[in-house]
Amino acid sequence: MIVSSFNIRGIGGALKRRRIRDMVRVQKIDFLALQETKLEIIPDSVCYKIWGSQDCEWVYLPSVGRSGGILSIWRKSNNSLIFSFKGEGFVGVCLEWGVTKTICFVVNVYSKCDIVSKRRLWSILTNCKRGLGDGRWCVVGDFNAVRRTEERVGVNTVVGGLSQLN
């Protein structure tokens, strides 16, 4: 299974959708995880255009206004959707994949930046794994994690008591 994940930072433009569609075709992607769609509603036509055909199924978590939004799309002919599950900052699917009917859980994450929200997200995902049983797990997405504070771009930080935009 070839899985690809991108923070798309808005999926509204035709050029962006075309580039993703070309990548899906050329790289033979089986599962596409997109974060920050910035769409409250994702119509069938958008998913078909992104995927390049109607041989797909999808599940999404809508944005809140122009913030966030998660979309997972996968090749319909290779699998059967057993169920999907959603929570704050993630959308997951349980699939029977391929001719061997391997049970696969794929979770698409878009984590908030604050540590409390991150801990809550990982606690929920850990409980999902415990409660949903055996199978192969793949967790992908934008975890909003950095090794050093300097790596954060566009986030307010406090320096010497003054707020500064990086």
From TrEMBL:
Gene Ontology BP term (one): base-excision repair
Gene3D superfamilies: Endonuclease/exonuclease/phosphatase (3.60.10.10)
Domain Endonuclease/exonuclease/phosphatase, chain residue ranges per copy: 5-146
Cofactor(s) of this protein: Mg(2+)
Keywords: Endonuclease, Exonuclease, Hydrolase, Magnesium, Metal-binding, Nuclease
Transmembrane segment boundaries: none
Family annotation (InterPro entries): AP_endonuc_1, Endo/exonu/phosph_ase_sf, Endo/exonuclease/phosphatase
GO annotation, cellular component aspect: nucleus
UniProt keyword Metal-binding present: yes
Metal-binding is among the record's keywords: yes
Molecular function GO labels: DNA-(apurinic or apyrimidinic site) endonuclease activity; double-stranded DNA 3'-5' DNA exonuclease activity; metal ion binding; phosphoric diester hydrolase activity
PANTHER family named in the record: AP ENDONUCLEASE (PTHR22748), OS07G0184032 PROTEIN (PTHR22748:SF11)
Family label: Belongs to the DNA repair enzymes AP/ExoA family.
Name under which the protein is recorded: Endonuclease/exonuclease/phosphatase family protein
